[in-house]
Design brief:
single chain; alpha/beta; TIM Barrel; 12 helices; 9 strands
Length: 284
């Protein structure tokens, strides 16, 4: 029997809108996803979370920590009251260390609470919308909150960086991958020191250019995988709410169609890949 490589294929942004959530649920039910991260500050989280119940044990469900889209669940003094700032502003302020750690930790706690109120349990993992969880100040606040809740050893954290050699072997999204790698420097070490497992290997950076077909993007993402890899994706049905929130619109429909296709199933067989809910799941 051929041993297959276990890969976490994680759909980001569950709860962003009804259309995005519906597309993720369709793929998960078909066995074409193995994890999803939830944006619990968005109204769509509570509306769509019941759809995850039949998938219990089949996919990992994590917190997709969000500090750049929609509104916070409570005031974040000096950062956000009615709406989160855009990513460029968040980057500027985190890199300059111009954020109050306690205020950021308070919003992290609220988003974790919103997850647990609905699911009745801690998340299986934590990552970040636009990778905000690895930014300075945010990462320290996140680790402190998770440790304070006694979650060390109970959930894993997504490291959005990869080896330079692996990034260079992929043709798509190299620039994005290198920027995120720089921003995430030291995150894995800090997570391990705090008692949290992480993935080893990360891919799935994609252009918004629809001339690059989804099949090419995912074939590239499944190249040069690490020992415990995560591949991110952003599928979903387009609705008017999505158009008002996010620039990645038509690309979500393209990813959804490809991941549901026989062509993607054939790629998984060809690459001898098994989708798993946890990066440290045993291969078989």
């Amino acid at each position: 029997m051929v041993s297959k490589r276990s890969v976490v294929l994680c759909a980001d942004d569950f709860g962003l809108t009804d259309g995005v959530s519906r597309g993720i649920l369709e793929l998960a039910e078909a066995g074409r996803l193995s994890a999803t991260g939830a944006m619990t500050n968005m109204p769509g989280w509570r509306r769509n979370a019941p759809g995850l119940r039949p998938l219990e044990g089949r996919i990992g469900v994590g917190l997709h920590l969000n500090l750049t889209t929609g509104a916070p669940l409570g005031p974040v003094p000096g950062f956000a009251d009615e709406a989160f700032p855009p990513l460029k502003e968040v980057l500027r302020r985190t890199l300059a260390r111009r954020l109050a750690p306690d205020a950021i930790r308070g919003e992290i706690a609220r988003q974790l609470d919103a997850f647990e109120e609905v699911r009745g349990a801690p998340p299986d993992f934590v990552d970040g919308h636009q990778h905000v969880h690895v930014l300075p100040v945010v990462r320290q606040a996140l680790l402190a909150e998770l440790k304070g809740r006694g979650y060390a050893g109970r959930l894993w954290l997504r490291d959005p960086s990869d080896r330079i050699g692996a990034i260079r072997r992929r043709r798509i999204g190299r620039g994005k991958a290198l920027v995120v790698k720089a921003l995430a420097r030291g995150f894995r070490r800090s997570a391990h020191r705090a008692g949290f497992a992480t993935n080893d290997g990360f891919s799935g950076f994609a252009p918004f250019d629809l001339s690059v077909q989804a099949g090419v993007i995912f074939a590239d993402a499944l190249t040069a995988l690490g020992s415990h890899p995560v591949v991110m994706c952003h599928p979903g049905h387009v609705d008017e709410e999505l158009r008002s929130l996010d620039p990645a619109v038509e690309s979500r429909e393209a990813e959804l169609a490809y991941l549901a296709s026989d062509a993607f199933g054939a790629v998984l067989e060809e690459r001898e890949v098994k989708l798993a809910p946890h990066p440290h799941a045993a291969s078989s």
